[in-house]
Design brief:
With 260 residues, the chain is α/β, with parallel strands linked by helices. The chain has helices at residues 12-15, 18-27, 43-52, 74-81, 104-120, 132-141, 158-166, 183-191, 221-232, 236-250, 254-257; strands at 2-7, 30-35, 56-60, 86-95, 124-129, 149-151, 169-173, 197-199. The radius of gyration is 17 Å and the shape is globular.
Length: 260
């Protein structure tokens, strides 16, 4: 069984065709997915999906790019994280690509999420773009390693991966690893310890080859695992077994809640 560690099933492109999306997940051996929160306003629809489908889990957080949304406090996040299907805090982190002034409000929001994760005891889902140094620094300052988590859709260098691994985080690779020109990410895919590796789609974005440019979906995560197996020169089944075991170890309550 594969796990998609990061997707957005509540986004319109996927929600409008959910029965077919879930059917393809099943057909491709994807038995579990984490639907990621990006703001508090839309969290109820994610929780509704998680409540309806036993193999869908949720996270709670406010994306670093999100503006004009309700700003979370530590107490807000901790309270929301108490929902039985919420297994992580995030998506959180820093994104300087769209906010090139490196705004302090992003850094304060990130600190809030890390503090909520430590208080709730739930791992973090971290997004970083053009902000690796500050992301790692704030993780260190706020002791994010006490709960660990996922460096989602990893696109940084091996040096950044090593620093995140040293803080107890897992590296999650998306469909980008299948792109021909993604040499830096392919290098990371070959070097991350197999027991610290996860796979994801970040759907509906970043569809892997051979679906690049189309709407992504959790069922396509198998193409990510296949490319990792090719790069590491190991059986596909070994990647599947390892990444799924890693997810269950990071989120120990998940396996017991899945349909048998």
């Amino acid at each position: 069984m594969l796990v998609d560690s990061h997707c957005h099933l509540d986004f319109p492109d996927l929600a409008a065709d959910l029965p077919r999306i879930l059917e393809l997940m099943r057909d491709n051996g994807v038995g579990c997915a984490m639907c990621i929160g990006v703001n508090l306003e839309n969290l109820p629809r994610i929780l509704a999906l998680a409540d309806e489908y036993p193999h869908i889990f949720a996270s709670v957080g406010v994306h670093p790019e999100s503006t004009d949304v309700r700003e979370p406090g530590v107490a807000d996040l901790v309270k929301l994280a108490a929902h039985p299907k919420v297994i992580a805090i995030g998506e959180t982190g820093l994104d300087y690509y769209w906010h090139k002034d490196a705004p302090e409000w992003q850094r304060e929001r990130f600190r809030t999420h890390i503090r909520a994760a430590r208080e709730s005891g739930k791992p973090l889902v971290i997004h970083t773009r053009d902000a690796a140094a500050d992301t790692l620094r704030l993780m260190q300052e706020e002791r994010a390693g006490e709960v660990g988590g996922i460096m989602h859709c990893f696109t940084e260098t091996w040096d950044v991966a090593e620093a995140a691994l040293a803080q107890g985080f897992h590296i999650s690779l998306s469909g980008i690893v299948t792109f021909k020109n993604a040499l830096q990410i392919k290098d990371v895919a070959k070097r991350v310890p197999l027991d610290r590796l996860l796979v994801e789609t970040d759907s509906p974005y970043l569809a892997p080859a051979p679906y690049r440019g189309k709407t992504n979906q959790p069922g396509y995560v198998k193409h990510v695992a296949e490319e990792i197996a090719r790069l590491r020169e190991i059986p596909y089944e070994e990647v599947v077994a390892a990444t799924t075991a890693n997810f269950f170890r990071l989120f120990p309550d998940v396996q017991a809640r899945l349909p048998q």
